[in-house]
Amino acid sequence: MNPAQHGAAVAAEAAGFVATVKAADLSTPVPTCPGWTLADLTQHVGSVHRWFTELLRRRIQQPPTSREVDLRLPQDRDGLPGWLAASAAESAEIFAATDLDAPMWAWGVDQHARFWVRRMLFETLVHRADAELALGISPQIDRALAVDGIDEFLTNLPFASPFAPLTAQLRAPDRTIRFSCTDGEGDGDGDGDWLVGLRPDSFALVADHAGARTADATVRGTAADLLLLLYGRMDRQSDAFRLLGDQDLLTHWFTHSAF
Question: Which pTM was predicted?
Answer without folding.
Answer: 0.94
